[in-house]
């Protein structure tokens, strides 16, 4: 069954439809610097108009990218706290699911 709103995919092949904040926390916590360096969250459709990604930085922490072409948003931040990242992404994603 396809996602109702969006899906999250990590580099190592983990896939979650409509991930909760806890599921995002798990996916981000599982990232590492060798074989699972990023997670992408986007609508489950061809040519999505928005996406968010979280990637491990070599110097520590995570780079978070949020892009929405309809709303002309493109934001890149760096964060070290996984639960803050998951919470902020959950709020950002909720505004796109409506």
Report on the architecture of this protein.
The chain has 98 residues and is of the alpha+beta class. It contains two helices and six strands; from the N terminus they run E-E-H-E-E-E-E-H. It has helices at 21-29, 82-96; strands at residues 7-10, 15-17, 38-42, 50-56, 62-68, 73-79. The longest helix has 15 residues, at 82-96. The radius of gyration is 13 Å and the shape is globular. The two termini are 20 Å apart. The model has no long low-confidence stretch (mean pLDDT 93).
List the helices and strands and how they pair.
Elements: E1 7-10, E2 15-17, H1 21-29, E3 38-42, E4 50-56, E5 62-68, E6 73-79, H2 82-96
Antiparallel strand pairs: 1-2, 1-3, 3-4, 4-5, 5-6
**Widest sheet: strand order?**
2-1-3-4-5-6
Give the mean pLDDT: 93
Described by strand count, sense and barrel closure, the largest sheet is:
6 strands, antiparallel
Q: Would you list the SSEs in sequence order as H and E? A: EEHEEEEH
Count of alpha/pi helices: 2
How would you sum up the global shape? globular
| Percent range for β-strand residues | 25-35%
Distance between the termini: 20 Å
Residue windows where pLDDT falls under 50 for at least 5 positions: none
- Structural class based on helices, strands and sheet pairing: alpha+beta
Helix content: 10-25%
- Give me the count of strands: 6
Q: Cα-atom Rg, whole angstroms? A: 13 Å
């Amino acid at each position: 069954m396809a996602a109702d709103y969006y899906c999250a995919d990590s580099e190592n092949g983990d896939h979650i439809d409509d991930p909760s904040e806890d599921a995002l926390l798990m996916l981000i916590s599982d990232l590492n610097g060798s074989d699972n360096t990023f997670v992408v969250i986007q609508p489950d459709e061809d040519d999505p108009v928005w996406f968010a990604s979280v990637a491990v930085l070599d110097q520590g922490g995570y780079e978070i990218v949020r892009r929405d072409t309809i709303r002309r948003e493109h934001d890149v931040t760096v964060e070290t706290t996984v639960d803050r990242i998951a919470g902020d992404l959950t709020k950002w994603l909720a505004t796109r699911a409506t």
